[in-house]
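Why run this: before we spend reagent on co-expression, it is cheaper to look at a predicted model of the complex and decide which construct boundaries make sense. The entries below are exactly what would go into the expression plan.
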Amino acid sequence: MELLERFALGEREAFETLFREYQREVFGWCMRIVRDRGVAEDLTVEAFWKMHRAHARFDPKRSFGAWARRIATNLALDHLRKNRRETPLVVEVADLARENPGVQRETREQIAAAFGELSLKLRLVATLSLIEEVPHRDIAEALGISEATVRVRLFRATRILRNQLKQVGA
Amino acid sequence: MSEKDELELRKYLQANVPAVDLDLRRDLWADVTRLLEKNDKRVPWFDWILLGAAAGCLAFLPQIVPMLLYHL
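The model came back. Tokens follow.
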């Protein structure tokens, strides 16, 4: 029997094999969204726990990676909604200063403020597409929306970001 | 808003926002198993309701005890 079929039937060994195969990918995906190592690790663990609980609903004919990303995205979005003030989607100014001291503080604050003007949905698409260069298809799959919707959200986010950054002279 | 504008913005952001480190530095399997075990031990809420209902029946309708024993 195939690995995915065994997982869908609830076999623990199959789950562990899939976990080992996909934990890095799921962690990387969470990291791209929340940009915080500790939070991304917690979300990865929770995502796999949810996958284990939902094994019977998984269709072995479909991609496990895409399903895992979708679950992780929903958890990451929930986390961002709950911690909107504490977790900026784009970047902490302090992180920028540590990792790239050459960049002017003003520029960093302008970018953070411009992203702060976006709704969570637009911010997520803008971060994944503009900064992380994730293909539209992958974003659409993870968010459960069409590629056309991704393009619309990206268009809106780009317009707002450009206007915000233009206003402050960036 | 043209593709050129989007490209310009993309370049500007990528130049000013550092890439995140996507490398997972530790194995998370132990954390997952801990979470699984913790939740395996948890009794589902409907089990508590069933238990409460059964206890209530026995407490308020003791006459059903011989009937239950007969059926057992």
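The longest helix of chain A spans residues 12-34. The radius of gyration of chain A is 18 Å. Bring this page to Monday's planning discussion.
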